[in-house]
Q: What sequence folds into this?
């Protein structure tokens, strides 16, 4: 066990939808610094009509990142977090059976309705507590039924578990990520075997469950050679769903907080001791996913900054559009008319890649609203709409869980977006504390640090974050007219 009074270095492999990175944290009783050792792109590839993750490219990026991380200091441990629901299949020899399919692929269209004919949606939610999303692992596996690939599979590994296997040779299923599959009962925190059996899902494909803090093996000799690391470095199981890691890094000093984990998605909700699986909760599309220490992440998925990311991608390829850099675009959006045009950030029309500005214009036109005419106006529409979606999620979560909130913590990449943070404070009528932006990586390393004896509990983790990480506080507007405008906008979107 390392000396808890001495600083140690932990590597966090943090995989996002558009890029991956390896971060190194120097951690001690009053020390928590983080720097990026290596960043690499995550570019999905469409082949033969199916959208895949380029998993070998990601793995190469991980190896390069570990090489860079090891050059900075000896590593006490390594942890991996990433996105949820997607998986790789291994054959009996442990070989990968094709590139994992991307959750934005269309293969699951209509699958949920098929599932509900066997296990009604109300019963499925009452058992698993997971909100409807067309890409849930359950529906992906049903879509794959009857395929030669699934027939040949002996193991199924969620993406962080797949990379852990390649690094250590050891199989496992991390619990917080498994809870997103719609195959876990969040009350018992075990597999829902009856749901799986009725829907034809073989739970034997999943290796034994690991919990955050459990050991996950040591780097294989070949990996040590490929990365230049000289010692048999251990991997520690972290909250491998990146949102679970991000919630672990909320620097809350009170129990009455809401969180919004922002990035490609906005995940807005509460940290609870037990799931909420009422019919009203299902109708409001809240999910009960697991966090560290048996907590429940009671939240709603919101489309998030994906809307703006896709707009930027479209504008960058349009020769007729001159798009300012992001900072200038946000400054121009701040002066654009407020709450002029609004969209539902949960609208499935925005899920797939494509011409997002055109789709936003279509929705505005169909609902009789002014159509945004410039990138700044479209950006303001997106950010106003996200702030309202944050408001609705936090209001609904308080009501459904019977838990009051006195502050909203925004963590993740969106914490850097001052306009979004201020609009969220105005919309919610609550103070917003923004930061840390690198929440997933910080949650990753803090679970490692706790597992290695440097911290005792979740309270100490959050206290260390509050002492060492920069945050910005945004107060809600005090102008009665502006508050009334947000109230009216909320009614407009709900209508």
A:
């Amino acid at each position: 066990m390392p000396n808890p009074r001495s600083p140690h270095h932990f590597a966090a492999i943090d995989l996002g939808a558009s890029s991956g990175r390896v971060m190194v944290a120097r951690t001690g009783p009053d020390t928590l610094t983080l720097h990026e050792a290596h960043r690499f792109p995550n570019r999905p590839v469409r082949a033969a009509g199916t959208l895949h993750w380029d998993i070998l490219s990601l793995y190469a990026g991980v190896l390069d990142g570990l090489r860079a991380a090891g050059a900075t200091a000896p590593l006490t441990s390594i942890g991996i977090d990433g996105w949820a629901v997607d998986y790789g299949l291994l054959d009996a020899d442990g070989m990968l059976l094709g590139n994992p399919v991307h959750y934005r692929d269309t293969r699951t269209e209509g699958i949920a309705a098929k599932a509900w004919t066997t296990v009604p949606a109300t019963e499925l939610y009452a058992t698993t507590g997971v909100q409807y999303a067309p890409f849930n692992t359950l529906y992906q596996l049903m879509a794959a039924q009857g395929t030669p690939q699934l027939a040949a599979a002996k193991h199924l590994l969620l993406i962080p578990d797949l990379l852990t296997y390649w690094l250590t040779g050891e199989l496992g299923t991390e619990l917080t990520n498994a809870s997103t599959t719609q195959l876990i009962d969040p009350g018992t925190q075990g597999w829902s075997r009856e749901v799986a059996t009725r829907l034809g899902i073989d739970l034997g494909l999943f290796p034994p469950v690991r919990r955050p803090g459990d050991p996950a093996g040591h780097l294989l000799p070949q990996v040590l050679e490929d990365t230049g690391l000289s010692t048999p470095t251990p991997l520690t199981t972290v909250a491998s769903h990146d949102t679970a890691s991000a919630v672990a890094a909320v620097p809350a000093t009170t129990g009455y907080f809401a969180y919004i984990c922002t990035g490609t998605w906005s995940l807005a909700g509460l940290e609870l001791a037990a799931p909420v699986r009422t019919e009203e909760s299902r109708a409001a599309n809240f999910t009960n996913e697991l966090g560290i220490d048996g907590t429940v992440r009671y939240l709603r998925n919101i489309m998030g900054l994906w809307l703006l990311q896709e707009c930027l991608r479209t504008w960058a390829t349009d020769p007729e559009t001159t798009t300012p850099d992001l900072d200038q675009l946000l400054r121009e959006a701040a002066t654009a008319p407020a709450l002029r045009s609004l969209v539902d950030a949960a609208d499935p029309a925005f899920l797939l890649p494509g011409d997002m500005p055109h789709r936003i214009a279509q929705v505005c036109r169909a609902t009789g609203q002014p159509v945004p005419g410039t990138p700044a106006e479209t950006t303001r529409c997106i950010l106003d709409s996200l702030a309202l979606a944050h408001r609705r999620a936090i209001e609904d979560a308080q009501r459904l869980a019977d838990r009051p909130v006195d502050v909203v913590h925004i963590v993740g990449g969106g914490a850097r977006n001052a306009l979004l943070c201020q609009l969220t404070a105005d919309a919610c009528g609550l103070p917003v504390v923004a930061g840390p932006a690198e929440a997933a990586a910080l949650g990753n390393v803090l679970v490692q640090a706790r597992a290695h004896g440097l911290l005792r509990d979740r309270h100490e983790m959050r206290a260390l974050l509050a002492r060492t990480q920069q945050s910005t506080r945004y107060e809600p507007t005090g102008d009665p007219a502006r508050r009334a405008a947000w109230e009216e906008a909320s009614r407009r979107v709900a209508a």
